[in-house]
Specification:
With 330 residues, this protein is an alpha/beta fold. It contains eleven helices and 14 strands. It has helices at residues 48-55, 77-80, 99-109, 116-125, 141-153, 171-187, 199-205, 223-230, 281-290, 305-315, 321-329; strands at 7-17, 23-33, 37-41, 63-68, 71-72, 84-87, 159-163, 191-196, 208-213, 216-222, 233-239, 255-258, 263-268, 295-302. The strands form three sheets. It has a six-stranded mixed β-sheet, sandwiched between helices. It has a four-stranded antiparallel β-sheet with strand order 2-1-4-5, covered by helices on one side. A four-stranded antiparallel β-sheet has the order 12-13-11-14, with no helix packed on it. β4 (63-68) and β5 form a beta hairpin. It starts with 6 loop residues before the first strand and ends with a helix.
């Protein structure tokens, strides 16, 4: 988890409205810390891509500003463009050009001198070196995604925006990309802003989580703090012999019978000391002993970031948990 709170970019009051009256962003404020991996989470249509488009100069904001290293990123776009890398959702790239020429050309667009050693290292890091003479047209979707990342990094930016970077990528390749991004942040000091529908991606990589819903930032928190503050733990108590019903003495506890009475599921707070009713786990286990209820095994489980995320959106009056869970897995 990053400890560096040096602000590299400040998003101040950014709003975006269209002529048809639709408001995509509403007074978005967000500080981005140097060297962190920030995950921007939200359902489809929440405003993630619009926000990245404004920051990277692809979309005009209706109001507000983006400050980067003391400069207005919108007014000084030319001056700051080399500091920003973008991996878009779309796989559009030069289909009939080779991988190597495509990446070299992207570096030249920023006015940088050739650096064959750097380009070679970058392509090797992305497992693209063996494909350097292949035309983009011949590559798989996952390899095309890697080319987009190479194009975004070849001009040596200090901030990298990844807009759904692993959409359509197989699981193995996805994990490879995560490790590479983590290494860049840790070893190269790269700041990474990631939008994703894969909750696992944010849970695995991010230092901080920002949740955007209906064009508004509704929560920004260190990932570990978020999971500690909002996450619940559950203890599955597997029984030697099944129970027909929950004993009356346990009915005040947040415990339910599951799996045809063969196990108890007990939910408690993040410290593991007390549940919401103020009862302790040790008291529960003591009652089971007194009642002669023998335990086969205990299995502890924390809430996932996905469960926290869906719960937050539900509390904000969004659509049902089921529809969000479906969106997040698409």
């Amino acid at each position: 988890m990053t400890k560096n709170h040096d602000v590299v970019m400040s998003i101040e009051g950014i709003s975006k409205s269209y002529d048809n009256g639709f408001t995509a962003l509403k007074e978005v404020n967000l500080d981005i810390h140097r060297g962190e991996i920030l995950a921007l989470l939200g359902p489809n249509g929440a405003g993630k891509t619009t926000l990245i488009g404004i920051i990277t100069g692809l979309v005009n904001a209706s109001s507000g500003r983006v400050m980067m290293d003391g400069l207005d990123a919108i007014k000084h776009q030319r001056q700051l463009r080399q500091k920003i890398g973008l991996v878009p959702q779309e796989l559009l790239t030069e289909s009939f050009e080779t991988v190597l020429n495509t990446v070299k050309f992207s570096r030249g667009l920023f006015g940088l001198p050739p650096n064959p050693q750097f380009v070679e290292k970058l392509l090797k890091d992305l497992s693209l070196w063996d494909k350097r003479d292949n035309k983009i047209l011949s590559l798989s979707g996952g390899m095309k995604r890697r080319v987009l990342i190479a194009k975004a990094l070849v001009h040596e930016p200090s901030i990298l925006f990844l807009d759904e970077p692993t959409a359509g990528v197989d699981v193995e390749l996805r994990h490879d990309l995560w490790r590479m991004v983590e290494r860049l942040a840790k070893e190269e000091g790269l700041t990474v802003i990631l939008t994703t529908h894969y909750i696992e991606e944010a849970e695995d990589m991010a230092d901080r989580i920002a949740i955007i819903n209906s064009g508004e930032i509704v929560l920004v928190e260190e990932k570990d703090n978020l999971m500690q503050q909002l996450g619940k733990k559950s203890l599955r108590i597997e029984l030697l012999e099944p129970l027909e019903e929950l004993p009356k003495v346990l009915q005040n506890y947040p415990v339910v019978l599951v799996d045809d009475g063969s196990a108890l599921l007990y939910t408690y707070d993040k410290t593991g000391e007390e549940d919401e009713g103020g009862y302790s786990l040790s008291e529960l286990l003591g009652i089971l002993t007194v009642k002669g209820i023998k335990i086969r095994d205990l299995v502890s489980q924390k809430s996932s970031l996905e469960e926290i995320f869906v719960s937050l959106l539900a509390n904000l009056g969004s659509t049902t948990k089921e529809s969000h869970a479906k969106e997040l897995r698409e």
